[in-house]
Amino acid sequence: MKSSISTTRKKEIIEGFYTLAREHGLENTSIAKIGKHLEIPPSLIMHYFPTKDILISHLIDYILDQYLKIYEPAIQELKEKKHADPKTFIDKLFSRDWNLLFDDGVFYSCFALIFRNKLIRKEYRKLHDRLREFLKDLLDKDENLKDRDTKVLAEQIFVVVEGAYYYLSMLDDEETYEQKVLLYKEQVYDLLRK
Amino acid sequence: MKSSISTTRKKEIIEGFYTLAREHGLENTSIAKIGKHLEIPPSLIMHYFPTKDILISHLIDYILDQYLKIYEPAIQELKEKKHADPKTFIDKLFSRDWNLLFDDGVFYSCFALIFRNKLIRKEYRKLHDRLREFLKDLLDKDENLKDRDTKVLAEQIFVVVEGAYYYLSMLDDEETYEQKVLLYKEQVYDLLRK
DNA sequence: AAATATATTGAACAGCCATTCAAAATTATA
DNA sequence: TATAATTTTGAATGGCTGTTCAATATATTT
């Protein structure tokens, strides 16, 4: 129980930060605004996060954690089965409910920070490498792929997924969106059966 | 000649903005700082760009223009030839000198704005669609691809390219970088000969 | 040369920014 | 219950933000 107030307050602050960043953008979210949102003085935020840089780096931890959590159910589900069909996972990757859980705006705003902050860059890299490794493990369970280089394959799949979401986020038209998703999904399937 | 001072000043301001954004980040670049950098009062900047939003939207025009310019030599060169080898173009896409001409940090910072600004989103989309259309035209000149859906193919290629650069920007290690580039390039080649 | 339009200056603005600090309230420890 | 540690408050800071405005300088048109 010791110092659990501290823990929950920190969590509360980060989540408030995330909420406001999602609504008004990362660059428009100040410590004072977070304070007002949570009905606490800004000095309390500074008490737990001595500088804004530190606050931001914790926001990034939170975001990357959330990002990973989206994969988690699929990961869990598929770990239990001995041999799983990667297609189930691919479908999840491209399913709509994914994006509903996660705000790409904040994600890319934070991503833009990797170019001037080595630590943030490393954190992003670590996350992406972990996802690739998981997919590799998954592919290794598929007998059809047993003579394939699954590490390379996992990488190629994620490159398509990441490029897909990058481009998809520019689209306004629902119909076009769905149509492109199908296309990219097919592209990943092709990689699997190559 | 009429009102050419206005034109060059505007250009100067935008380029100064870009330079500072590249150095210190978009969110850390203020009108006052641009003024100091160019040795002009901030009010002169406001004279040409009435609000910061307008200034930013012009920066984005500039960036997307630059982005397109990277492709231009290749586009020009290949347009002249009647039937061109797409591989030459792909190689250019993955060549190192590309990134030297362009700052991904500013590009992705601006990209993050598409999520809360429909106009910016549209501009980004337009650029990416133009590049896809160009590549399609290029692929259409290749006889080996004459029974392929080149529009789809161009899209698939760019998805790999964009996903590749997204992931590559997280890497610190030069050697790993080069190795991944080869891998992604191979992935695009596979699409061509599929 | 006068009148008009454009370009540039510099000072000033309120409002927000991250951050500091000392004091108070609350909780845990002895 | 006294002491110590943690949590919370509220007021204050200087510096930076985008923006306004009236005045001046320079260039263009009449």
Description:
The structure is a homodimer. Chain A is mostly helical. Chain A folds into two domains: about 1-50, Arc Repressor Mutant, subunit A; about 60-194, Tetracycline Repressor, domain 2 (Orthogonal Bundle). Chain A contains ten helices and no strands. Chain A has helices spanning about 5-25, 30-40, 40-50, 50-80, 85-95, 95-100, 105-110, 120-140, 150-170, 175-194. In chain A, helix 9 runs antiparallel to helix 10 (about 175-194). Chain A is elongated and about 60 Å long. The mean pLDDT of chain A is about 90. The interface of A and B includes residues 25, 113, 128 and 171 of A. The structure holds a DNA duplex (30 and 30 nucleotides). Chains A, B: It holds the Pfam family TetR_N. Chains A, B: Represses transcription of the icaADBC operon necessary for biofilm production.
